[in-house]
Amino acid sequence: MADTPPRLCVTVAFSPAARQVHEWVLHVPPGTTAAQAVLASPLAASFPGLDLASLHLCIWGRAGSPTQALREGDRVELLRPLRVDPKVARRERFRRQGARATGLFARGPRGKA
Fold first, then answer.
1. Whole-prediction pTM
2. Averaged over 42-58, what is the pLDDT?
């Protein structure tokens, strides 16, 4: 019986839009980098017009390098660029809601309607 070389189980995840997540579980050889795992996944075939260079790469939510070697159980996440600066979005939300509808006690103290 031939020995099979060890394989790592890793996940590649991408969210093309809010509340949509696509995940692919891959079995790759040890020493595989994050970039190699992304290229081995069906990401490019699933999203043909996707510019991979514009995506930010993370491993378990922490910034990662495309040349970083993966370990067993790693999750490679590809993040799309932000459409709106979070600070600007917060200012606009505050402007729409007003001062009384925002903040820690916007709904009043607990236990009182």
1. 0.72
2. 91
